[in-house]
Design brief:
Helix 1 crosses helix 13, helix 5 packs across helix 10 and helix 7 crosses helix 9. The chain has 307 residues and is mainly alpha-helical. The C terminus is likely disordered. The longest helix has 27 residues. It has 15 helices and no strands. It is globular, with a radius of gyration of 19 Å. It is 76% helix and 0% strand.
Amino acid sequence: MWGASYLLIKYALEDFSPAMVVFVRTALGAAVLYAIIRAQRGEARAELADIRRRPATAVLLGALAITAPFLLISFGEREVPTGLTAVLIASAPLWVAIFAPALDRSETAAGRQALGLVVGIAGVGLLVGVESIDTLGQFLGALAMLGAAGFYALSSFIVKSTYKAVPALTTSFISVGAGCLLVLPVAAATPPDHAPGLRSILALGAFGTAIAFVIFYALIGELGAGRAALVSYLVPPISLAYGALLLDERIGLAAIGGMVLILAGVTLASRAPRPAPEGAEAGPCVEEVAEAETAEAAVATGASRPS
């Protein structure tokens, strides 16, 4: 679903401005999420009160997780092919590793996980070589994609630290709903000048936005920000396949080699670190890791999983 988003954005940009694409997809996504929450009731519905308790935090999450990256991606895709878009967004785990020392030391990559990130980023670099960036517009579009990946990484820390006790379904609604409201003024200033087709943007809002984010936030609660962000490595092969089949974007030997490296990086980086031997004295770093694993275990057992 997430890999198809970049293809659907490309289609939607034929009829909508970038801001209008973001607004319509988030409005639809928020509506779908709210309907599911109302139907389920229970904890997900009760936790909607979190919006009233922490409105500023909801706005911050919406800005970092939705408004900023969605706008950057939509503007960038006017110049950048869908396959390259997915490749550049795959840098999100690297951004998590860059931000981790300042924001959450338990997410710092080390050992086998660090090797997996290096291998995955090497695959990203190889895939970037498939597409040529030879104009200023393409260069700026590529920078926009990298910026979007950075915002995704920042938002994952907020989800893990501030919304760890909130069901993933509710967190998704809060972020998508807040993002929708934030982008509304910009969208209102750029209405479509003709009757647009809504088929692609309907799928984009319901699946690529609503359902995909529920799954992603559930992963953050169970695995942590760094390991959950590794889902970005799986998107480029899917997006490249969509682009080749439906947009005639070329896939060469470099793309195949890059995908192999990306999947190898996912395999290495997503493995949990080995526990320390029994009886071993734990230094400060080991103690911090143990505390982080305990907190993540509490999140995994306490958070409701999407059905």
